Amino acid sequence: MKQERVLNVSELAPPGPMEAILEAIETLTPGHYLRVLHNREPFPLYTILDEYGYRHCIRDGTDTLFEIFIWRKDDATAKEAIDTAMK
Q1: What is the tally of structural domains in the chain?
Q2: Residue 1 — pLDDT band, cuts 50, 70, 90?
Q3: CATH code, 15
Q4: Does the predicted model carry a pTM greater than 0.85?
């Protein structure tokens, strides 16, 4: 079973990306994470993620400028999968 859900928000106008990301993280189950493809770095999102109990990390994208990985704070399985995906 794939642990990654990919969400491409690169062509959405604000506030579409924020809305789509916040909706998508609510569906994450244990061991799963969200990989967001985005052409902007969504700085306001990071505070919200922390308040909602999520962590994130960022890397340069291949198809978009940024790839943002999001997982629940206490989900070590998802974090391990992200670490593997980022290699």
Answers
A1: 1
A2: low
A3: 3.30.110.40
A4: yes
- On average, the pLDDT of the chain sits at 96
Q: At a CB cut-off of 8 Å and minimum separation 6, what does 49 contact? A: 25, 55, 56, 70
The pair of structure tokens assigned to 8 is: 């491409």
Q: What number is the average pLDDT over the span 16-29?
A: 98
Q: 54 by DSSP, 3-state: which?
A: strand
Residue whose token pair is 């960022």: 58
| Token digits of residue 2 | 């794939």
Name the token pair of 85: 């995906």
pLDDT tens, position by position, 52-74: 999 999 999 999 999 999 999 99
Encoded tokens for 67: 């790839």
Residue 79, token pair as written in the block: 């974090």
Which candidate, 66, 65, 6, 3, places its Cα nearest to that of 35?
6
